[in-house]
Amino acid sequence: MSGLLVFLVLSYKAVKSYFMNLITVSILVGISIIAIILLTSKLKLKAFVALFLVSVFLAFTTLPADTIVSTIKEGFGSTMASIGFLIIFGAMIGIILDKTRATLSIANYILSKTGKQRSSQALGITGFITGLTIFCDSGFIILSGLAKSFSFRSKIAMPFMATVLATSLYSVHCLIPTHPGALAAAGIIDVNVGNLIIAGILFAVPGALSAWFWSKLMIRNKNYQPATEIIPCKQETTGTLPSALVSFLPIAVPLLLISVKSLVLLFDKEHISLVYRIFRFPGEPVFALAIGAGLGLFLLKKISIDTVNSVFTDAIEKAGPILIVTAAGGMFGMVIKATGIGEEAGKILAGTGAGLIIPFIIAAIMKTAQGSSTVAIITTASFVLPMLEVLGLDSETGRMLTMLSMGAGSMFVSHANDSYFWVISNFSELDLNTTLRVYSSSTFVMGIVVFIFIWISSLFLL
């Protein structure tokens, strides 16, 4: 009898200790996430510094002393290894398209096919295509003059044109590598980047279309005006632009190579076909983007060592901050994983049938609270990773759908705490209320629509 009593007492103490430790770690992880939000949104601290400080704090308060340094280094290094080349080559393509004004050549070509009365569709297609490699803020700055020109020519309200451009760029920015959030999250939860690019494009389409229809509804019966004058800009002198064919190549060829390899792998599980051997390396995202960057060099008027070095230097300057932020996100993720809190949370949620809703909601809350889609999706990936198995998402398809769900969540809501919001407002000369009504509401609709499509797809794929 006394032995049984001792056993019960010890069991009670063990259970109590377990739950007290779980609660303590949960509180510390929660404090860490809130700290990232406050440091980046309220104090305007750089994301890398915020992620590093919070990672160190969480590591020292939850992990054994002899594992702290190795955990931090492993998280930073493994993420850098998985995304580094992709970000650099993606930045090179973006820099070349910007420097040579190839994006404007693409826009003019699409407009010539759609006609003046369909200029909003032409602008949306342009934003979607160029956004595959150019970051949304840079893309909007480059093409904002074009949006004003299209608005003036077609007499379409400027808030609508600005939102169409902004959301078409934004739809691919949140879902597709080589954009930093999607790429870092893919590295954290180990998603096949080639498959993610293809799936991301497919799911970005309904997102962009829903934003087009919603923003059109938002301007109905409102006294919104078209741009009052054409801003003189370089795209008007089309004779100086590169040809549309050459302009498309740096974007189209990498996507084609990656797509072909992914399709071949669906039918050639043994990796023995001639087609697989041909596309084995060119279809790898790293080599595909390198080929795209090489093709982009033909857009330069003069190819020389100096021009190539100049492009590469600009790309490194562009990619550097992104590399360290995404790697810091991986570091934070590794620390969270090492605490074990994700696995425990996953066990609690395993019986709820929540599945993909969890990463979607977490990313949405993070995005709305602190403004950065990149920080939102990286933090969510770090938190969700240990839950994947118990949520039934620890498969190649499950991880990809998880990644896309986080991307959908990171779309909304883009509002006044998002730097992209102010880029749109300032470069389009729209007031705060108009931008909130037309653009911000569109990002909410985009996130919901994309997630619905992802969830429906999961019913057939999982």
- With helices defined by DSSP (H or I, 4 residues minimum), what is the helix count? 19
Helix fraction bin: over 70%
Which structural class do the helices and strands define?
Answer: mainly alpha
Number of domains: 1
Order of helices and strands: HHHHHHHHHHHHHHHHHHH
- Beta strand %: under 5%
The parts where pLDDT drops under 50 for at least 5 residues are 4-19, 230-238
Protein traits:
mainly alpha; 462 residues; 77% helix
What can you tell me about this protein's structure?
There is one protein chain. The longest helix is centred in the N-terminal third of the chain and has 41 residues, at 2-42. The protein has 19 helices and no strands. The protein has helices spanning 2-42, 47-62, 68-99, 102-114, 119-130, 136-154, 158-175, 180-189, 193-219, 244-267, 274-279, 285-296, 305-339, 341-349, 357-370, 373-384, 396-409, 419-428, 432-461. The chain is mainly alpha-helical and 462 residues long. It has one domain. Mean pLDDT is 81; it is low at 4-19 and 230-238. 77% of the residues lie in helices and 0% in strands.
